[in-house]
Amino acid sequence: MNTSRNSHTNLGELIDAGLRRTNLSLRGLAEQCGVDPSTLTRLRHGEMRKPDEDMLRRIARHLGQDIEDYHVALLADRGQLPRWGKVLGTELGIRLSNDDEQAITQFVEAMLKHRRNG
């Protein structure tokens, strides 16, 4: 099976990692999820602005992945990761310094990289 898929998005790399881990081809995943293979290719390459949530759930389920990782990857692909200081401030009443916020952002990016590499 050819695993060199050249995805250049966080979501695409997560999907590629899942394909490698499950030894599925893109076509096989498409069949299992009930979508056209070209739809998966467009999704992997970041060509779908608002992918269907049900489709994302089916893909994640068939690849044994967490849908929340897909949500974070999509945000990262769009350059929309939240400002962690605001999130924690709102949710927990915590104030973070700029250094703390940068460290959290780096952690999230490292987590995405780790998940992509399976």
Quick synopsis:
The protein is mainly alpha-helical. It is built from 7 helices and no strands.
Features:
single chain; 118 residues; mainly alpha
Model description:
- 67% of the residues lie in helices and 0% in strands.
- With 118 residues, the protein is mainly α.
- The protein is elongated and about 45 Å long.
- The mean pLDDT is 86.
Oligomer: single chain
The count of strands amounts to: 0
Structural class: mainly alpha
N→C terminal distance: 17 Å
Shape, principal axes of CA atoms: elongated
Rg, Cα atoms, Å: 16 Å
The succession of helices and strands, N to C, reads HHHHHHH
Question: Helix and strand layout, with pairings?
Answer:
Layout: H1 10-22, H2 26-33, H3 37-44, H4 53-63, H5 67-77, H6 84-92, H7 98-116
